[in-house]
Amino acid sequence: MQSSNLPNERRAGDHDRLLQWIDEAGIRAKGIVEIAQARHRDVDQARDGFDELAREAREHQSRLAQIQEAMRQVDTVLQSIRGIAEKTNLLALNAAIEAARAGSAGAGFAVVADEVRRLAGSVTHTVQSAGPIVDGIQVSVTDAAQAYERFSAMVDRRVAEMGGILDGLASIQERVDANRELFGRIAGGVREVAGAP
């Protein structure tokens, strides 16, 4: 009689082992879902950080554009000052000529004209000295703006990549959830067939 119970006992052991494996698979699937959810949150936070970096980069680009415009205006003002200094120098020269024509009566006026001409020369020299400085600042600001533009584009690409990763993690999570549900149904079916509780 024992030999006739042996296949049933073996079958019951196989069913128990199968149920155990299915339960283990369900537990592992749950663990995978939890890991995927945690990575999803991590990547989502990283994407938010990159979004913030992108916003900051665009804000800095805007500020650099404002600085570029201000530097163009400074250059325009310097050109105007240079023009005024050149005209003042010509007026001082003409005044000196007229003072020389006036003779001793124009001697005081000649001193003033000479001082005005020296002042105009000093202004011209100062403006010429400022020109390369302004040009250097404009080049630096343009380089910085281009660097921020490249950085912003790189951040935007990374944000898009993270969106793809998030979509992939969500897809994995959905599939693992579906497999977990399937394992549960299989375990229920095996229990039903085996008459287990």
Task: Give me the secondary-structure topology.
Elements: H1 2-102, H2 107-194
Count of separate DSSP helical elements: 2
Radius of gyration: 42 Å
> What is the beta-strand fraction?
under 5%
Give the rounded overall mean pLDDT.
84
Helix-strand topology string = HH
SS-based structural class?
A: mainly alpha
Q: What is the annotated CATH architecture?
A: Orthogonal Bundle
- Can you summarize the main beta sheet? none
CATH level-4 homologous superfamily: Methyl-accepting chemotaxis protein
Residue runs with pLDDT of under 50 for 5 or more positions:
none
- Count of beta strands: 0
Count of discrete structural domains: 1
Shape: rod-shaped
The CATH topology is given as: Helix Hairpins
How would you describe this structure to a colleague?
The chain has two helices and no strands. The protein has 197 residues and is mainly α. The chain has one domain (8-194): Methyl-accepting chemotaxis protein (Helix Hairpins, Orthogonal Bundle), CATH 1.10.287.
